[in-house]
Amino acid sequence: MSADRFIAYGLRGWFLVALIFIYVPIVINFIYSFSPGRFPTLPLGGFSTGWYELILSEAPVPRAFANSLKAGVIVALISTFIGFAAAYTDYRYRFLGKNIYLALALLPPTIPVLILGLVMLMFLSRVSLVGELYSVVLAHVVYCIPFAMALIRLRLAQIDPDLESAAWNLGANSWRAMREVIVPFTLPAIFAALALTMAVSFDEYLIAFFVGGLTETLPVRVLALLQGQVNPRINAIGSFVFAISMSLVILAQILLLTRRSGNRGIAAGGA
Amino acid sequence: MPEALLVLDQVVKRFGEHTAVAGVDLQFHRGEFLAIMGPSGCGKTTTLRMIAGLEQPSEGEIRLNGERINELKPWQRDTPLVWQNLALFPHLNVVKNIEFGLKMRNIRARERRERSMNWLERMGLADYAGRNIAQLSGGERQRVAIARALVTEPEILLLDEPLSALDAHLRVRMQSEISQLQKQLGITFAYVTHNQSEAFAMASRVAIMDKGLIQQIGNPREVYRAPANHFVAEFVGSNNIITGTVSALADGWVTVETERGKFKAPAPEPAPAKGDTLELVVSADLVAISDHAGAHENVLSGELISEEFVGSIITLYIDIGDGVVFRVQKQQHELEALDFTSGRKLYASWRPEHTYVLPPA
To answer: Do B24 and B163 belong to one domain?
Structure first.
């Protein structure tokens, strides 16, 4: 066996180990969420959906879940809208200080979340907007806009710049050209941004913990549960959250990948 | 006489420090096919974009039907453009692309579908209505782009090098289609190109641009046979330019002494004085070639460097001393008797009346 092949197999093996390392805890978590016992045992003591029933019967968890869902949807809508506007500004206009504008617009995810959360808490409490669900929404919008903007910028970069001018030339004013040409062309990225920002908001713990006060989102509730005692309920919640987040992220990926090659006509531009 | 359909009056366009268009006067008459031709960067595309409202003139005035349109937004004027890259909407199918202009004018769905289908039929694309743009060939896309621009029945159509992406064979076919279409519709076509054969084949008038200025405007024959200055003479056709000084003047003829010999030419108006420097233009297709001292009065000799066949036309490149190259264009059958070994001595000759004297700069 040649050295090259040895290296190739070695790298594949290493990759596999890495994958196992990442995913095995999640899988185990998932499996034990169906175990009836209080402590993980091998072999499994049977099959039960008892932990799921338990968390659903406990008021704080469904309420936290509903909060997360509401916040996620609103955050996704607002941050995708602003992200689109920011990306379009970058695409369409040249102006003094554009690099600074871009840097500022894309900055939030590079700030440590701990600091972002603290600063948000300080600011929002000054203006008396703290402790409510809309506080979480506000803070998450700030955090999520750059993700939406980055995705939509990628798509806008693929537009032939003459297309918008061509629409004007054929009688479309600025708004109409945006509606008939830019938005339909960007639609896959807009959907992807909706899914991704929702996933980010749904998962985010620290900011929500700081600014939410008594209004708990799901990750905050999960951590609160963990602090009390390690309890198999965590397995059930974890599986649940993981399933939702992953679905959203995978949805975003599918939208971005399949839409790139051709178009299937959903973007047919209104009427 | 009423003013022309579209008038450019001392139009200037500056981008920062750079002046793209330096004061252009141009009139587009109703129903004419005007080609604006020039090397890249001469300002021809900027001129067209100003007519479409995609650029604002820095100075001067653009008038359509006698009314100033400088400040009108692109969507407020009916000056459709056929783009160099066609700029068809990839997310719309063929018929929706064509309908676009009508839809923007809020014409009802049934009427716009009908009018678009009429255009598709006219362009021989009726079966393609529901297709994606990506499924069309180059020539088909070209037709869709033209139909999309014409569906609103404008008074003027702007075309920005629309054929540059096509292969040579298809280009020639589209040329004749476009020029027939213009004759049938009877509307004004403003056609920007750097391609001389394209411009001369289609246009009723040609405007030659360089450095942001119109250098000459006239029908193709005038521009070809009587270039207004050195730039036009070099840019248009395959002209040979020889510089010399006037040595004699008599009976409407002028004799010019050059480093390559003395040549006779019709005296220009106003008549030059003895000792003036003149530039003579000899069109490559008006030169006779032979292996003995010439059939015509104006003769020079040189060594054959190379030859080039394009279809039935052959171009000979002759070194007439000091590396100066003289071009001769002939039909291939005219040259069959001659032997073209590279380095062979040849005589080029032409009639004095076929010598054109450039107006002084």
So the answer is: yes
pLDDT at residue A264 above 70? no
Give per-residue pLDDT as tens, A11-64. Answer: 999 999 999 998 898 888 888 888 877 777 777 777 888 888 877 777 788 888
CB contact (8 A) between residue B89 and residue A167 = yes
Among the listed residues A57, A44, A80, A43, the one whose alpha carbon sits nearest the alpha carbon of residue A198: A80
CATH code, domain carrying B279: 2.40.50.100
- What ipTM was reported for this prediction? 0.85
Domains delineated in chain A: 60-261 (1.10.3720.10)
Residues of B within 8 A of A265 (CB-CB) are 93
B108 touches chain A (CB under 8 A): no
Average pLDDT over residues A180-203: 92
- What residues contact residue A254 under an 8 Å CB cut-off, 6+ apart? none
Contact residues on chain B for A185, CB-CB shorter than 8 A: 90-91
Residues of B whose CB is below 8 A from A173: 73, 75
Residue A271 has pLDDT above 50, yes or no: no
Give Cα B146 distance to the centre of its chain: 20
Q: Do the beta carbons of residue B121 and residue B15 sit within 8 Å?
A: no
Interchain CB distance below 8 Å, A263 and B149? no
Instruction: Say how many domains are in chain B.
Output: 2
Q: What is the CATH number of the domain that holds B33?
A: 3.40.50.300
The nearest alpha carbon in chain B to A162 belongs to B87
Give domain status of residue B144, yes or no. yes
Asked if residue A265 has pLDDT above 60, the reply is no
- Under 8 Å between Cβ of A147 and A196: yes
Contact at CB, A170 and B149, closer than 8 angstroms:
yes
Residue B178 tokens read as 């476009």
Indicate whether A170 pLDDT > 90. yes
Contact B91 A172 (CB under 8 A): no
Chains A and B form CB pairs within 8 A to the count of: 76
Looking at residue A57, its amino acid is: S
Q: Is the dihedral of CA B39, B42, B46, B47 positive or negative?
A: negative
Say whether B91 and A170 touch across the interface (CB within 8 A): no
Q: Answer yes or no: do A185 and B90 touch at CB < 8 A.
A: yes
Is the model's pLDDT at A259 over the cut of 70?
A: no
